[in-house]
């Protein structure tokens, strides 16, 4: 299952996996647990621990420099020996703090036990430094007063920082900011066993929101482990579109291959992690074959494509590069705005509803390229060659894709678009008189990441009119390739290739 691939799934399961209407059942029993109210977006523990690592390395180095300025300024210059010692001790401290487990959410929240571990690791680092100075006979190069004062000041600074962290992280934990909101797929005893195992380990951060099972109540009880069955797997798709969800755990046995494929065929389009529980499985693989939620072994089926530090990198890339592009293209934007205003009556910008990340509705900006009275906000009719709805200036703007440049405002200020990603298609866009999700199986998997102004499909010639099944199929194939192979360098390549792809614009009208 670890080698499971999207194309294998598409070949095994037919049918469109788009959103379906859902009548959510209401919890009838007051004693059933309800998902906690999460105030604010979820915080990645991986990102938080990385930030704390960086902060503590900086704090340790800063106290070393400060103690030199306080005791030795004017007497001993801050040369290579002191600079090298600061860098080496700060790096060794980071390794030591990691070794004593000081960066998990539980450790960041705990003051006493973590403080003792931090103090022990910091003391060990300085004992190693002093021993190294002794054996290298470098005592004449480094002041002992400086080392002792740095040790005391660094320890005090770390303790004050950890006191503040314990307060902040404690509040975030109580607010559910680290919770992985989890749905269980499957019922009966296997689901009950997994729920009990997860509940026995409160530090996993798992918060179960409910049970989903395609079987009726006769075969799958309506309440499992104190949680109510909220619907079928099809209902789960709609549930995940409207409720923050991070993880789905299947409790079905691996032997139920057909049921698993059918359910995965509906869920793989969602931007969430999907795991297959091996808790009650009779098949025993090597421990390294599993990942673990606490001590519960699971097999990784799908991962959210861009998460943790990748998400931070992409956000920074969009903001920094997007702002630079907005500044550079400002004269062109102003010239296009004037041309649109002089060419025909109506607003300069055209706002259009489109599907964004996880099928959320977003509003994108474009330069108006059609006559106001002929505008088609839902894009129910694709623009074709010599379309009478398009203005004279609009033809130039559309052919060169200058009409898309206002979407830099979406990237920089609204944050609902990326510079690079699958293009956000309009709500009623069609190919061969059928909505896109009716033409291409798994079409909504494009929405597992934030849509972009340009994308891998566009630089490979699949931009413009999508009037046939082949065109939209090829677009989706390129979009899925991008999602599966994303990197910052891939984004840079696509951005660099975009101007050259505009030279060939046979399908752009």
Can you walk me through this structure?
By secondary structure, the protein is α/β, with parallel strands linked by helices. It has three domains: 6-21 and 179-302, Rossmann fold (3-Layer(aba) Sandwich); 45-174, no CATH class; 309-501, no CATH class. Helices cover 46% and strands 12% of the residues. The chain has 17 helices and 14 strands. It has helices spanning 6-12, 45-71, 80-99, 105-109, 112-135, 144-174, 188-199, 233-242, 257-267, 309-328, 330-343, 392-400, 407-414, 436-439, 456-459, 469-484, 488-501; strands spanning 180-185, 206-212, 223-224, 227-231, 247-250, 273-277, 291-293, 296-302, 349-355, 361-367, 418-420, 430-431, 434-435, 452-454. The strands form four sheets. It has an eight-stranded mixed β-sheet with strand order 3-4-2-1-5-6-8-7. A two-stranded antiparallel ribbon has the order 9-10. The protein has a two-stranded parallel ribbon with strand order 11-14. Helix 2 (45-71) packs antiparallel against helix 3. The two termini are 45 Å apart. Mean pLDDT is 83; it is low at 1-34.
């Amino acid at each position: 299952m670890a080698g499971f691939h999207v194309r294998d799934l598409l070949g095994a399961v037919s049918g469109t996996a788009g959103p379906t209407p859902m009548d959510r059942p209401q919890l009838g029993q007051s004693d059933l647990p309800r998902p906690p109210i999460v105030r604010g977006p979820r915080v990645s523990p991986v990102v938080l621990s990385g930030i704390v690592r960086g902060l503590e390395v900086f704090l340790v180095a800063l106290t070393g420099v400060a103690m030199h300025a306080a005791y030795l300024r004017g007497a001993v210059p801050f040369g290579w020996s002191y600079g090298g010692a600061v860098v080496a001790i700060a790096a060794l401290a980071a390794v030591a703090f990691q070794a004593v487990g000081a960066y998990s959410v539980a450790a960041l929240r705990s003051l006493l036990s973590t403080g003792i571990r931090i103090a022990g690791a910091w003391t060990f680092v300085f004992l190693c430094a002093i021993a190294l100075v002794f054996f290298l006979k470098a005592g004449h190069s480094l002041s002992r007063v400086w080392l002792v004062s740095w040790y005391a000041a660094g320890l005090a600074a770390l303790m004050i920082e950890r006191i503040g962290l314990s307060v902040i992280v404690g509040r975030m934990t109580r607010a559910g900011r680290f919770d992985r909101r989890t749905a269980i797929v499957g019922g009966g005893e296997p689901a009950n066993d997994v729920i009990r195992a997860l509940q026995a380990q409160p530090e996993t951060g798992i918060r179960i929101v409910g049970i989903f099972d395609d079987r009726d109540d006769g075969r799958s009880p309506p309440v499992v482990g104190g949680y109510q069955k909220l619907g079928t797997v099809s209902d789960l798709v709609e549930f995940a579109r409207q409720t923050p969800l991070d993880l789905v755990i299947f409790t079905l046995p691996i032997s139920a291959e057909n049921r698993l494929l059918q359910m995965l065929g509906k869920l793989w389009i969602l931007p969430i992690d999907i795991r297959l529980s091996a808790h009650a499985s009779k098949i025993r693989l090597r421990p390294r074959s599993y990942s673990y939620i606490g001590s519960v072994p699971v097999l990784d089926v799908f991962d959210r494509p861009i998460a943790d530090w990748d998400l931070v990198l992409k956000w920074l890339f969009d903001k920094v590069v997007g702002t630079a592009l907005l500044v550079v293209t400002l004269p062109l934007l102003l010239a296009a705005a004037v041309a649109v205003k002089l060419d025909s009556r109506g607003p300069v910008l055209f706002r259009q509803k489109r599907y964004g990340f996880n099928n959320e509705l977003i509003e994108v900006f474009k330069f108006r390229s059609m006559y106001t009275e002929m505008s088609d906000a839902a894009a129910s009719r694709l623009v074709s060659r010599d379309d009478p709805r398009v203005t004279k200036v609009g033809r130039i703007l559309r052919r060169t894709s200058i009409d898309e440049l206002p979407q830099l405002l979406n990237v920089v200020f609204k944050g609902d678009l990326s510079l690079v990603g699958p293009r956000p298609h309009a709500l009623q866009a069609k190919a061969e008189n059928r909505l896109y999700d009716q033409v291409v199986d798994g079409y909504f998997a494009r929405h597992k990441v934030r849509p972009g102004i340009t994308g891998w499909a566009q630089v490979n010639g699949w931009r413009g009119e999508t009037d046939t099944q082949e065109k939209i199929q090829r677009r989706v194939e390129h979009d899925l390739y991008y999602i599966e192979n994303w990197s910052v360098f891939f984004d840079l390549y696509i951005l660099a290739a975009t101007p050259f792809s505009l030279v060939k614009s046979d399908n752009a009208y």
